[in-house]
Design brief:
The structure holds 3 protein chains of 3 kinds.
Chain A: E1 5-11, E2 14-20, H1 26-33, E3 52-55, E4 58-61, E5 74-76, H2 89-96, H3 106-119, H4 125-131, H5 143-165
Parallel strand pairs in A: 1-5
Antiparallel strand pairs in A: 1-2, 3-4, 3-5
Helix pairs in contact in A: 2-5
Chain B: E1 11-12, H1 30-35, E2 50-56, E3 62-68, H2 70-73, E4 78-83, H3 94-100, E5 105-106, E6 112-118, H4 121-128, E7 132-137, H5 144-147, E8 160-163, E9 166-171, E10 174-182, H6 185-191, E11 194-202, E12 214-219, E13 225-229, H7 234-245, E14 252-256, H8 272-282, E15 286-289, H9 292-298, E16 305-313, E17 319-331, H10 338-344, E18 354-362, H11 376-394, H12 398-405, H13 424-433, H14 435-438, E19 446-456, E20 461-468, E21 474-478, H15 486-498, E22 505-509, H16 526-553, E23 560-562, E24 566-569, E25 572-578, H17 579-584, E26 594-600, E27 608-619, E28 626-636, H18 643-662, E29 693-699, H19 720-732, E30 738-739, H20 743-749
Parallel strand pairs in B: 1-29, 2-15, 11-30, 13-14, 17-18, 21-22, 28-29
Antiparallel strand pairs in B: 2-6, 3-5, 3-7, 4-6, 8-9, 10-18, 11-16, 12-13, 12-15, 16-17, 19-27, 20-21, 20-26, 23-24, 24-25, 27-28
Helix pairs in contact in B: 7-8, 10-11, 11-19, 12-13, 15-16, 18-19
Chain C: E1 2-5, E2 19-22, H1 27-37, H2 41-45, E3 55-59, E4 62-63, E5 77-82
Parallel strand pairs in C: 1-5
Antiparallel strand pairs in C: 1-2, 3-4, 3-5
Chain lengths: ~170, ~750, ~90
């Protein structure tokens, strides 16, 4: 097995099994072993957020997590956001508000925003900006991203209310 | 939801009746990007792929005595090792070769020396440590003015200063001296009632694109090459590969992937040739992805500068003389942006007497490259503070002072070139009328500053084809890489010209084998220049379809017209065909219709985009931290094809400008090491650092473009540092003579530390 | 006669004149005429025979895509400016 470790995890709701070297980051495993290239590499030292994913519900920089650490865990990447009914409200809101230009920071930004809305369904602008401060964007100047997150939050609250009533 | 304050209709005094242009459709590629499906440089994967890594110089200046790759070659998992010896003999220019893989000298920390292709990037990295290089370390020169001195260490023994005064005799680090003189500066200064002179230094800054460079090379059995790369221009990459590999251009196909930011920094090629060399030697495809530290150390940041400005004005408020000296770091090889810096420093003003001297100076840092309006930001940081000071000394409102002296149509620049119609005055007037200019500051330690900047349009060469499909939709191909939403803007112009809805136009970016030569997407040229190509291709389509209608109806083609709704003929008013109806009959009437547009936009008398920015800042007097509270950016864009795009460019450019103004920079130690090669220490603005930037679009249509479009994407970064500096002056009473205006520097200027 | 704006660093060759007139149907012909009147002008602009890559030719306010081969009108104006691009 030349030093490789077997990892079993759930990624975007699907059971996955793969072999990796202990030194390979989760980012590398996602991209190079599992072919999930939606998660991006920007710096590999946890300073840009482009590689953000959810690990067991927590927002992490996947460049700072080892592949072997996710054994038995659950990971959500950008590929897992859209559902059978279409785009996730955050994804739709990003498009509606032109909250992306080059789109390179977008996957990480979406996951970070999701992690926030999972905890706080009605965050203030200040909270959104603070939460997203770990995700660098060089193209947009951020305010459309903030507006998109606020709009998605509104839609999700409304959908949740509808669901509750139904 | 009400229209946000920053998405109002543009200010324009010309009536418009356009259907597609001026709307805000979603951008091409946006859905793929939010799904994570868009393919960026490092996302390319091929069977049997190997991974490449580059060995880089640890020294800022050294002679290479020997390079021994034998141990690396024998390392398990290594498939190929290349050095400069693997480049074909005599191929390409010497500087090009040396910056791809070093020859006998290394000139900056990070300078590539060798590269390895291996089964995994980890193995490649491990094997790099097994390459033995012997150096004779030389003293580096890192400061632009030190490098200009006669006794400074020389980077290139053969470099002589070139200028229009002739070639200098002895070697120097000054590669070029340029000068513009207009009128009689001495006489002008003699007439001035007030003269202000200041000197400024600015630090080298990286473009900070979030996606590192990545290139994947695959050789085919017939000896041809395909390279996938994230670049602002596939054709220049092809030329570069052709030159350095000594391979005919038609045998090379460069496929541009999606690009995660460039801003000029991806207009140069860094790892494409290396990937190709490794792939050829290994006999397998090779992907080379740069790490962030490599990007910060060894790509092409924008020059650090020393700039001296002297300006004189009369009591009546007219500027009568101006003088500037600009010394720009070229990095290891000649070719900084000092030419455009010299061109833009006084560009906003009508000054009768002026002299500008520019110096392109090599230093032991990476070869500098373009960064959004190259050369302009430091120049405007300097001149706008001097202009501000003149206005203050004369007791004239800063905006009024600029209105009194701004350039207009026909004003001659320092180079002698006259301006076509450009909205300098219109932008100033719109700024003056904007509520921000007269709003209360609302607190202590707050100040408001303005700055006026300009960036010209490069138009360049572009190709575009439009194929008509039987169902009335069209397929548009362009050689322009899609940055800044330009692809959508280009498609919108084609749709407008064809009389179609945007959803009937499907646009794609072509590779170099599929379309004609197209210059980089840069220089604020793409929506403008490739738009021209798309319009020409659309007109070609219409001309061909008019001929078809003529054939169908049996009438002379001169009698057929198209009003962007229907084709009709003056011979018989009952004959009408929509675009879709005629498209359905193309096969039966002579075959497919394909229109082409191949243009060189520089044949037109093009102008540029001026911008006036208003910045409110707050200073913490204890820490020196500057917070930008409110920001308004007024800019002439000619005609906003997609106002949302233009606003996005303005917001993004201002955000970069804020980072440049307050904290960004490449800081070097005395030995030439980059002290901050990570995004932790090379701080880029976060969501907490940028306020809502309000863009105000002014439309003074560019007379040479059918829809009045101006290139607008670069100007937004230009006035930012100057506006913030002028705001800080109002709080501290001190002029800011250095970039970045870090907390430590601000406190130092205030005399606190 | 075509008016040529003489870059300041070359005015030592033209006796200090900032603008000179010369005949010609293309920029190259005008340059030949200039060279005849003010020897050395051509070598400064075109060291080694070709227009220096740092320079661009502007004719009547437009950057000339044909460079020295660009046709000029009888009352045209020619400038030599830095070749600049963008990012």
């Amino acid at each position: 097995m030349d030093g490789k470790v077997r990892v079993q995890a759930t990624i975007n709701g699907q059971p996955v099994e793969f072999l990796c070297e202990p030194r390979q980051s989760l980012l590398e495993c996602l991209r190079d072993i599992l072919g999930l290239t939606g998660t991006k590499e920007g710096c590999s030292d946890g300073n840009c957020g482009a590689c953000s994913v959810l690990l067991n519900g927590r927002l992490v920089n996947s460049c700072l997590v080892l592949g072997v650490e996710i054994d038995g865990g659950e990971v959500t990447t950008v590929e897992g956001l859209a559902g059978p009914d279409g785009l996730h409200p955050l994804q739709q809101a990003f498009i509606d508000h032109a909250a992306l230009q080059c789109g390179y920071c977008t996957p990480g930004m979406l996951l970070a925003a999701k992690a926030l809305l999972d905890r706080d369904p009605d965050p203030s602008e200040e909270r959104i900006r603070q939460w997203l401060a770990g995700n660098l964007c060089r193209c947009t100047g951020y305010d459309r991203i903030v507006r998109a997150v606020q709009d998605a939050a509104r839609r999700m609250r409304r959908d949740a209310d509808v669901h509750a009533e139904g | 939801m009400s229209t946000p304050r920053d998405e109002r209709k543009p200010v324009t005094d010309e009536p418009v009746s356009l259907r597609v242009i001026g709307t805000r459709p979603p951008l091409y590629g946006a859905v793929d990007k939010v799904l994570g499906r868009a393919v960026f440089g490092a996302d390319v994967s091929l069977p049997e792929l190997l991974h490449g890594k580059v060995l880089r110089s640890p020294h800022a200046h050294a002679r290479i005595l020997s390079v021994d790759t034998r141990r690396a070659e024998g390392y398990p998992g290594v498939h190929a090792v290349v050095t400069a010896r693997d480049l074909p003999e005599g191929a390409g220019e010497q500087f090009e070769r040396d910056n791809t893989l070093a020859g006998d000298k290394v000139l900056y920390v990070g300078h590539p020396i060798a590269a390895i292709a291996a089964e995994s990037p980890h193995i490649a990295e491990e094997a790099l440590a097994l390459i033995d290089v012997q150096y004779e370390v030389l003293p580096p020169v890192l400061d632009v003015r030190r490098a200009m001195q006669a006794d400074a260490p020389l980077l290139h023994e053969t470099l002589r200063t070139w200028s229009l005064a002739g070639q200098a005799a002895s070697p120097s680090n000054v590669a070029e001296h340029l000068q513009h003189v207009k009128g009689d500066p001495e006489q002008g200064f003699a007439e001035a009632d007030v003269i202000v002179e200041r000197s400024f230094t600015t630090t080298m800054v990286h473009q900070g694109y979030i996606e590192p460079h990545a290139s994947t090379a695959l050789w085919h059995p017939d000896g041809s090459l395909t390279v996938w790369t994230c670049t602002q221009g596939a054709f220049p990459v092809r030329e570069h590969l052709s030159s350095l590999l000594d391979l005919p251009m038609a045998r090379i196909r460069v496929v541009p992937t999606e690009i995660g930011g460039g801003f000029g920094g991806k207009a140069s090629s860094y790892v494409d040739v290396v990937a190709a060399l490794l792939a050829r030697k290994a006999g397998r495809p090779v992907k080379v992805v740069m790490g962030r530290d490599e990007v910060l150390k060894a790509t092409g940041p924008t020059p650090g500068t020393f700039i001296r400005v002297r300006m004189g004005a009369r009591r009546d408020g007219r500027i009568v003389a101006a003088e500037a000296e600009l010394c720009y770091e070229a990095g290891a090889y000649p070719g900084s942006s000092v030419g455009s810096g010299a061109d833009t420093i006084f560009a906003c003003y009508d000054i009768p007497n002026a002299r500008v001297d520019g110096y392109d100076v090599v230093v032991n840092k990476p070869k500098t490259s373009s960064y959004r309006a190259p050369g302009a930001t430091p120049a405007v940081f300097a001149v706008e503070q001097v202009v501000d000071e003149l206005a203050e000394r004369l007791g004239i409102d800063p905006l009024d002072f600029r209105l009194l002296n701004c350039a207009r149509e026909g004003t001659r620049r320092v180079s002698g070139q006259p301006y076509p119609r450009v909205g300098f005055a219109e932008v100033l007037q719109a700024a003056k009328a904007h509520p921000h200019y007269s709003a209360p500051l609302g607190g202590p330690n707050r100040g408001r500053g303005i700055a006026f900047g300009y960036w010209g349009n490069w138009a360049g060469q572009s190709c575009c084809t439009i194929s008509v499909n039987a169902d009335g939709t069209v397929s548009l191909l362009t050689g322009s890489v899609d940055v800044s939403g330009a692809l959508t803007g280009i498609a919108m112009q084609a749709a407008e010209e064809l009389g179609l809805e945007l959803r009937q136009v499907q646009a794609r970016v072509a590779d170099t084998a599929s379309i004609g030569y197209t210059d980089v997407s840069a220089g604020s040229r793409t929506t403008f220049g490739t738009g021209l190509a798309a319009i020409e291709a659309a007109r070609d389509v219409i001309a061909q379809m008019r001929a078809r209608a003529a054939r169908l109806w049996g009438v002379p083609v001169e009698t057929v017209s198209y009003d962007r709704v229907v084709f009709t003929t003056s011979v018989d008013p009952t004959k009408r065909l929509s675009f879709r109806e005629l498209a359905a009959q193309l096969s039966a009437t002579g075959g497919p219709v394909m229109g082409r547009g191949n243009v060189d936009g520089d044949v037109l008398r093009r102008g540029g985009a001026p911008g006036l920015h208003i910045a409110d800042v707050e200073l913490d007097p204890e820490t020196g931290k500057v917070t930008v509270l409110r920001y308004t950016a007024v800019q002439d864009v000619g005609r906003a094809v997609h106002p949302g795009n233009v606003e996005g460019q303005i917001k993004g450019g201002v955000a970069q400008g804020i980072g440049w103004a307050l904290y960004e920079g490449c800081f070097y130690g005395e030995d030439g090491q980059l002290l901050n090669p990570t995004l932790l220490d090379n701080k880029l603005p976060t969501a907490m650092d940028i306020p809502v930037v309000e863009p105000v679009i002014v439309e003074v249509p560019d007379p040479v473009h059918p829809y009045g479009v101006r290139g607008a994407g670069e100007t937004p970064i230009v006035p930012v540092a100057g506006a913030i500096a002028n705001a800080l002056y109002r709080i501290t009473g001190r002029r800011m003579e250095r970039l970045p205006m870090t907390p430590a520097y601000v406190l130092e200027r205030m005399g606190v530390i | 006669m075509v008016v040529v704006w003489i870059p300041s660093l070359m005015r030592d060759l033209t006796g200090g004149r900032a603008r000179v007139s010369a005949p010609g149907r293309t920029v190259a012909e005008v340059l030949d005429a200039l060279e005849a009147a003010y020897p050395g002008v051509r070598e400064r602009l075109c060291p080694g025979g070709r227009l220096h890559p740092s320079l661009a030719v502007v004719v009547d306010g437009r950057r000339a895509p044909l460079g020295l081969l660009e046709p000029v009108g009888e009352e045209s104006e020619v400038q030599f400016v830095p070749a600049v691009s963008g990012g």
